[in-house]
Amino acid sequence: MKAKHFPISTSVLDLIEKTTPTHYHVYDEAGIVENTRRLAKAFSWNPGFRNYFAVKATPNPSILAILKAEGSGADCSSMAELVLAERVGLRGLDIMFTSNDTPDVEFRKACELGAIVNFDDITHIAAVERACGALPPVVCCRFNPGKVKAGNTIIGRPEEAKYGFTREQMLDGYRLLKAKGVTRFGMHTMVASNELNPDYFVETARILFELAAEIRATVGIDFEFINLGGGIGIPYRPEQEPVDLERVGAGVRRECERILLAAGMPMPRIVMECGRMITGPAGWLVSRVLHIKRTYKTYAGLDACMANLMRPALYGAYHHISVVGKENAPCDTLYDVTGSLCEKNDKFAIDRMLPRLEPGDRVVIHDTGAHGHAMGFNYNGKLRSPEWLIRADGVPQLIRRGETLDDLFATLDCGIATR
Ligand SMILES: *Cc1c(COP(=O)(O)O)cnc(C)c1O
């Protein structure tokens, strides 16, 4: 079993903790850049390949600025995410607006920024036209493949998912868009999350390419880009392997040549909306042990809680835990690693073998760079952690201060003050 790597030295942690004691999230710029480049390299055969980073994964402008410098776009699903993309200077076709159940103001904001609008439903075509006064120049429809043929274990149960158009609606949707004068099209699907099987993404591409060929033949439009969505998984467990991106890229290329180029279609740009694989493995939640409690089980209580990282409590997700300075100590003690919420689910790990812990030990929770801080909340009046970025030159930079009680109470007195 490979040890999980934590690239930040104790002296850098000490430096960070002079300003902000635990808990905090910390990200590694070099790792984020490397992950972005690995993905781009796997698709270097495709002119115009681009990842639209899913902003929801790590909605911090300092992170978005790194990704922008690497050529990534932004995949946004809400007003706040559109505004963040705008603030870092992303505009127009740099932004993919993949929303669902969308209020008019958000469609208007997306149109104002000139974003690619990725329709989640056929009725949203009229909704956008009404909200924005016209349709955006480049649009995309989100496909939900529904019940796929029996025996296909790769794609789960998309028919239970709220997202996207049915197959018939895809044909009707593009017909309608063409009739309304739109000339520039993409196609999208996203039907899995945290998927580690590379062949899954090749299968997704095949489904989209076949549909694109059919729509081209029957509706008479060309596709500028095919958006395979996000969902590339990461090895949260030490025994797991990262997705073989070369295999994904090569497989998508093969299907593209076999289905699209063979039918005389021009090569579309392949685009993705990966969040997790870009920032997930390059982020950690650093916390300290407050108490060791021995009752029917042994509990290591941390100064962070599920308000700072919800995935274990929400989905039973595994996050690896290591203890700074005890990397080589035997994992000979069984713990539940808990937070302080009045909520029995508030555990980072259940029945985890760890080195023997003491109050004050610095504990690192791995792979928290995506959907970590972002899913934070304020139950029990818990404050969101600060976020630090280790720049490529090794210098730590505070990229979001921690919340204060004043932040927490800031929305409370407005009604009282105006009365
Ligand atoms: C969440 C989401 C993504 C990003 O998924 P990751 O697992 O972070 O890669 C991309 N596109 C859409 C539409 C999403 O909802």
Low-confidence stretches: none
Largest sheet: 9 strands, mixed
Oligomer: single chain
The tally of strands reads 17
Could you spell the SSE succession in H and E letters? Answer: HEHEHEHEHEHEHEHEHEHEEHEEEEEEHH
Instruction: Name the CATH superfamily assignment of the largest domain.
Output: Alanine racemase
Sum up the overall morphology in one term.
Answer: globular
Please report which band the strand proportion falls in: under 5%, 5-15%, 15-25%, 25-35%, 35-45% or over 45%: 15-25%
Estimated helix fraction: 25-40%
Do you know the CATH topology of the largest domain? TIM Barrel
User: What's the overall average pLDDT, rounded?
Assistant: 95
Distance separating the two termini: 63 Å
CATH architectural group of the largest domain: Alpha-Beta Barrel
**How many distinct helices?**
13
CATH class of the largest domain: Alpha Beta
Question: How does the helix and strand content classify structurally?
Answer: alpha/beta
Bound molecules: pyridoxal-5'-phosphate
Integer count of domains = 2
Rg for CA atoms = 23 Å
